[in-house]
């Protein structure tokens, strides 16, 4: 009985200790402006970082940045992150280079296991974002060149979307062609949030390379079908969205 009670107290102390760990919540505005689309759109998003556990980036598609006034951290009652149908998630365990997220081809969704690699080049350029000192870094990634400003002031590492590998927290990042931009709008911390868990179904994950092959097959299948009808190439499924998905054939 003594050993059982001791074990129970030990487990309880671990749980209570973890519950007091700080969770960082960084709010962003995510802007996309594809050339094939006549309008751009901006969605609110949030990055949840538990330095000793996991990181979760949530994009609230279908909402506008103004809606963050009522719920600045997309954090419902009880400090539990809720999965909603229009939300997109990017999940990464602490210290793991593997990123898990949901993506789609036409109307079919896939859970993708990706290992995006960024070869960052640090520069001497700097600026302040939300009052934090930020250093500039650049990288080429899957068809685009990005410039990012990150801060070491908070003592944590993290980034929205697929970005990874800088010695600090990215607060502003954009593609130099103007298609993609993520800007931090606020930073908060909480003590009693539940441990971050992967909200995605991982029973049938595919790799990034498998996803690209599926996309490419669908792209050329649609293109051949449209050309066969004498209407030319279809613009509804571009070779390049945020990333290059279809390589040119020789």
UniProtKB/TrEMBL annotation:
Keywords: Signal. It comes from Aquimarina litoralis. This is GLPGLI family protein. NCBIfam families: GLPGLI. Residues 1-19 form the signal peptide. Pfam families: PNGase_F-II_N. The keyword Signal applies. It comes from the Bacteria.
């Amino acid at each position: 009985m003594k050993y059982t009670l001791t074990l129970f107290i030990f487990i309880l102390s671990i749980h209570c200790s973890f519950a007091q760990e700080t969770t960082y919540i960084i709010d962003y505005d995510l802007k996309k402006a594809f050339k094939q689309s006549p309008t751009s759109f901006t969605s609110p998003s949030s990055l949840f970082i538990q330095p000793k556990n996991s990181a979760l980036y949530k994009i609230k598609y279908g909402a506008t940045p103004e809606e963050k006034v009522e719920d600045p951290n997309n954090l419902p009652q009880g400090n539990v992150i809720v999965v909603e149908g229009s939300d997109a998630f990017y999940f990464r365990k602490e210290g793991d280079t593997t990123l898990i997220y949901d993506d789609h081809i036409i109307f079919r969704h896939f859970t993708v296991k990706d290992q995006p690699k960024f070869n960052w080049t640090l520069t001497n350029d700097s600026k302040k974002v939300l009052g934090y000192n930020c250093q500039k870094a650049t990288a080429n990634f899957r068809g685009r060149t990005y410039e990012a400003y990150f801060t070491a002031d908070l003592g944590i590492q993290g980034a929205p979307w697929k970005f990874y590998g800088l010695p600090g927290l990215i607060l502003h990042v954009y593609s130099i062609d103007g298609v993609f931009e993520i800007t931090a709008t606020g930073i908060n911390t909480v003590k009693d949030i539940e441990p971050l868990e992967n909200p995605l179904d991982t029973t049938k994950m595919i790799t990034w390379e498998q996803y690209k092959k599926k996309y490419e097959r669908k792209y050329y299948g649609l293109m051949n079908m449209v050309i066969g009808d004498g209407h030319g190439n279809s613009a509804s499924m571009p070779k390049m969205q945020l990333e290059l998905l279809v390589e040119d054939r020789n």
